Amino acid sequence: MASIRDIARIAGVSPASVSRILNNDPSFHINEDTRGRVIEIAKHLHYKKGKRNVGPKQTDPNLSIALIMRYNKAREINDPYFLKMHNGINEEAKKWHLRIEQPFKLEDPNKEWNELANFGSAIIEGEMTPAAIKQIQNINSNVIFLDVNTNIYGCNIVRNDFIEATTYILDTLYEMGHRNIAYIGGKSTVNGLDGKPAYEKDDLRETGYLSWMKLHNLDQYCHAYNANWSAEDALAAATKIAKLKDLPTAVVVASDPMALGVYKAFKDAGINIPQDISIISFDDVDINRYLTPTLSSVYIDTEEMGKTAVRLAKDLITEKIKIPLTITCHSQLNLRDSVIKR
């Protein structure tokens, strides 16, 4: 059962104010919007007067969020991108007295999607097929898809801005005199309800790269390589780039782990970074500052992205939000020694 403290925390007012509002204290004066918000939250959380609804602990399913992780725990814990995202989710949930549970992971062989009906909201990492999304929304209408780089029609989304960031990278390189620019990335996976990839599609960073090159009449320099998000495959792709007759002056790499493979390939080929070729990547993990040369990369605050998803979940639980919301978390390009003007 939700407590007065739960309602106060979510409404952003004191427990004393909640108590006086819910008890219709005629001597208590407060903004009518705030009064209405407190009453609405109390209704959503099925608050009942006359019982000792005190203390931060609660078992009300309306105050719980299901978290469905995309990858296995070992991979996500060892990846700073996801580790920070999950830290943000847990910290923000604790702040609002919301309970986070992981009923299953996408990769689990046996998944009971109907369990999501027992939660006030659900946060699912990654993109799913339209059919899967529809079925999940029928179970829990407060579902949020987290860490996607595209818009999904009719869904609540907390997305990164990697599409826009790709355009910004290319514009920056263009202003620095680069024209012959290559791209190394991977395919995007769209999962079905079974948790398995239903199909792959071009990552929107690659789509953005190809469109940008065409728009700037640089089709003759288009070189896009699928490296399956691995350093080893990126090394192979960069080895192919090193053998091109007209060597690119810059390469955009879709993740920092792949950039490590690119660094090694160019070193093995006797190609100097950045004198011969500039490199810009995505993720901006801490190790970038210790590479030689230091790696330019796009940073996105995934901890804040996780917190944003929880705040949206809270609003979906407690407010009457009639339209699906898309929240874009913006990134920052940090230029370092791996890029120079031409």
Task: Output the keywords.
Rossmann fold, single chain, six-stranded mixed β-sheet, six-stranded parallel β-sheet, 18% strand, alpha/beta, 342 residues
Q: How would you describe the overall organization of this protein?
A:
There is one protein chain. The strands form three sheets. This protein has a six-stranded parallel beta sheet with strand order 2-1-3-4-5-13, covered by helices on one side. Strands 9-6-10-11-12-14 form a six-stranded mixed beta sheet, sandwiched between helices. A two-stranded antiparallel ribbon has the order 7-8. Strand 10, helix 10 and strand 11 form a beta-alpha-beta unit. The longest helix is centred in the last third of the chain and has 17 residues. About 2% of the residues have low confidence. The protein folds into three domains: 41 residues, no CATH class; 126 residues, Rossmann fold, CATH 3.40.50; 138 residues, 3-Layer(aba) Sandwich (Rossmann fold). The radius of gyration is 24 Å and the shape is elongated. The protein has eleven helices and 14 strands. With 342 residues, it is an alpha/beta fold. Helix 1 crosses helix 3, helix 7 runs parallel beside helix 8 and helix 9 crosses helix 10.
How are the secondary structure elements laid out?
Elements: H1 4-11, H2 15-22, H3 32-44, E1 64-68, H4 73-78, H5 80-95, E2 99-101, E3 121-125, H6 130-139, E4 143-148, E5 156-160, H7 162-175, E6 181-185, E7 187-191, E8 197-202, H8 204-215, E9 224-226, H9 231-242, E10 250-253, H10 256-268, E11 278-282, E12 296-299, H11 302-318, E13 326-329, E14 332-334
Parallel strand pairs: 1-2, 1-3, 3-4, 4-5, 5-13, 6-9, 6-10, 10-11, 11-12
Antiparallel strand pairs: 7-8, 12-14
Helix pairs in contact: 1-2, 1-3, 5-11, 7-8, 9-10
